[in-house]
Amino acid sequence: MPFLRSTPPLGRRLASALFLLCFSLLLAQAQSANIARDNKPGKAGRERVSLTDGWKFSRFVSDPDSLSYHTTLKSWILPSANDFINGTKYKRPSGTPPGSKVKYVQISFDDNAWESVTLPHDWAIKGPFNAPGISGGMGRLPTNGVGWYRRKVTFSEADKGKSVFLDVDGAMSFAAVWLNGNLVGGWPYGYNSFRLDLTPYLKTGSDNLLAIRVENSHENSRWYPGAGIYRNVWLVKTSPTHVGQYGTYITTSDLSDKSATVRLVVDVQNDGTAAQNIEVDTEIREFNAATGQPGPHVVASFKQAKVNVAPGQKQPVSSSTKVASPQLWGPAPEQMPNMYIAITTLSVNSKVVDTYETPFGIRTITIDADKGVFVNGKPVRVYGSCNHHDHGSLGAAFNTRAAERQLEMLQEMGSNSIRTSHNPPAPELLDLADRLGMLVLDEIFDTWTYAKVADDFHTIFHDWSEADLRNFVRRDRNHPSIMAWSYGNELIEQNPNEPGFGQGSVLFRDMLRAEDPTRLSTIAMNYAWPGTPMADAVDIIGLNYQGEGQGLDTNGAFDPFHAAYPRKAIWSSESASALSTRGTYIFPVAAGNNAIVGGADAGGNDTALRVSAYELYAPAWGSSPDKVFEAQDRHGFVAGEFVWTGWDYLGEPTPYDAARSSYFGIIDLAGFKKDRFFLYQARWSPETKGAHLLPHWTWPGREGLVTPVHVFSSGDEAELFVNGKSAGRKTRGQYEYRFRWDDVLYQPGNVSVAVYKGGKEWGRDVKRTVGNAKKLDISADRTTIRGDGYDLSFITVAVVDGNGDIVPEAANAIDFSISGPGEIVSTDNGDPADMTPFPSLTRNAFSGLALAIVRSTKGADGNITVTASSNGLTKANVMIRAN
Ligand code: GAL
């Protein structure tokens, strides 16, 4: 929800424009996924080992060891920030680091009784719900407490003399790491990735004990944060002479059909004891992002550079080359997400000591104040959505297939962009965005110095914000999918009545420019106005809801901002916040194209905690999709929108704090499409033929009552039929985004629509009055998965009548069982108020549907059968091959 402290004076607005110049910034860049490939085992000189398996874990509800960050660890962990701030700021205190006597860091401690876990791991997701002291806002799951993770790691004699690093992609939160009882360092912000140097503490030829401690308070987030080591962890072994962390930066320029200039900076690190003469070579090949394989041919190479690096120093080496006939990266579906890979080798006396791979793309981005975003010179309207980091019933534990499914469904809807609200995503999400051709607004902070909840980022802002920001950009800047940086969301520093007014706006913008001069940056503002320091500072004006007339200017803030900043592009960094519960229709239906949830018509006081899916309803600060579309269409200079949200997420269950997950999503938490999906698809993918009619047509007791029928389609004319009799043909006018027949009287039978475009049939839909539930239908999104203990199949079960039609309000209890080399990790149904724990194998259908998520077992090679059964209904099963 928006954070407004007080109302800024209206008179402060700058109304008139000084310049009406069109100004565009041409950004040419080439980007990579270097952290994810940092690097594959087997590359000469470098080994990257996944530390997924073999962990022991225990959660403590109260502090078991007095090692809390704020009271004990802070000064010891702060030096981990030094690589990311200008000049060494923090020194390690003298004396014995804390924790060395704590039993959990000792190799001798017997952890047999602890739980065996595999990373990525989210301890809270299994529930139960209604965890003491955890609000609906945070998802009602037991995220609080201290978590200890322990794992033995063996280094062979061959590892002697190597540099060894621990790369943690994300741990929630205040992570602190010990190796063999020595406190190595840590990183408090749970969404950032970090590296620690294990070299001084490891023993070769014997077992080493790695212990990681994380801690979460009851109130550290406005949404579900997850808990524990919820992303991947890697051991990286290199020669002392190696490419540093995030050690390549690639940009491109001078693009034409014939060639592109590629610039490369390589950070050459010498952790050895003597100066080294190092040869730096890089070749470029095409890159198949789906297989992770470089192509067979070298398409360009950089002239060899020779550098002498003193011991303990890092030296950047810059060079450039040209790629002939470049295959450009661009967003799908209009453009192709072509990728390249730069393969860098460091050699000493012609012997390769390190190999480092940097996937990247060649493309230009222009963000124009009047015309919006252009990629490779072609216009791209931002059809985006904001999304939090969780995967619904799988929780925060990152899973590549779950993330891929989220992006694929957004793309199916016609979406071309995502905003990583409000934090750095898992590195693999950006690899997926590169591969699938999704543009990304990469965002880092939800708060700066002010609290939104008691223990959020503001508690560490002073010490960590610079390190977090620079780390984030260096990690992500080679990804071609990233079109801009966002350095904050709805910051309270927007507000002139707060003492911190505007502070940080220029400072962080300039840090971003220094770390990545090729991209623009923005802040998502919900209560800004022209002439305030934050609006003055940002490169792109990001407006949350203000464009549609919320916040400062009830007439909509697009025009005043455009007039005041004729050189800055504007987009809706957050729009809509529309609310609905899939498959739920509450009467009467609002007459206009936008209504605030609250009355009996929409929900807002519904005892089953539902909001009507006529898709007209929003909280006071939001707007229906229709109202947003109109505001966008009336302001052609606006570059587009990021809808709040693409997917439902855990936490923030507005308007019902008693629930546990959101109502904002276009797609529900289980991955089932709400009606809204088709409203967005009609707008964002207008070439997609079809029609989508709502509500369902099984309303015993509503005979003769007004039951409005709405149709979402990109067609321009539509005729509705009730039991074959025309209820009227309608043409969709300007600023109308749906066909609606609001006075239809319900009678059992069927309601159908025929939609036309340019006089030709464009699509049909029908809803029938269904009979009693008879059987279950089952289907899998993928019937072949990898037998790697990680890949997933998403199984949908529908409760259907004798004709195979879904029984729209069916809530039958479904029992899932499984045989073969796989397990059911979780079940769900998309109901934000369902408090059955996610691992439960019994799940009530909700609006006729239920979901089970199946994961293969490691080493699986065979058939998995999933069976769904329910009292009185014919059961169903589906087979999945895992190999
Ligand atoms: C916005 C906020 C989001 C979310 C949303 C709900 O103001 O930025 O994080 O809370 O409201 O409508």
Automatic annotation (TrEMBL):
Q: Which domain of life is it from?
A: Eukaryota
Task: Describe the location of the Glycoside hydrolase family 2 catalytic domain by residue ranges.
Answer: 370-526
InterPro entries with a match to the protein in the record: Beta-gal/glucu_dom_sf, DUF4982, Galactose-bd-like_sf, GalB-like, GH, GH2_Domain-Containing, Glyco_hydro2_dom5, Glyco_hydro_2
UniProt entry tagged with the keyword Hydrolase: yes
Gene3D superfamilies reported in the protein's UniProt record: Galactose-binding domain-like, Glycosidases, Immunoglobulins
Q: Which GO terms describe its molecular function?
A: hydrolase activity, hydrolyzing O-glycosyl compounds
Q: Where is the signal peptide?
A: 1-32
DUF4982 domain residues: 705-762
Keyword Iron carried by entry: no
Q: Which UniProt keywords apply?
A: Glycosidase, Hydrolase, Signal
**Stretches assigned to the Glycosyl hydrolases family 2 sugar binding domain:** 143-238
Q: Which residues form the Glycoside hydrolase family domain?
A: 776-878
Give the transmembrane ranges: none
A Gene Ontology BP annotation from the UniProt entry = carbohydrate metabolic process
Residue ranges occupied by any Glycoside hydrolase family 2 immunoglobulin-like beta-sandwich domain in the UniProt entry: 250-363
Q: Which Pfam families match?
A: DUF4982 (PF16355), Glyco_hydro2_C5 (PF18565), Glyco_hydro_2 (PF00703), Glyco_hydro_2_C (PF02836), Glyco_hydro_2_N (PF02837)
Its family remark reads: Belongs to the glycosyl hydrolase 2 family.
Can you name this protein?
Glycoside hydrolase
Species in which this protein is naturally found: Staphylotrichum tortipilum
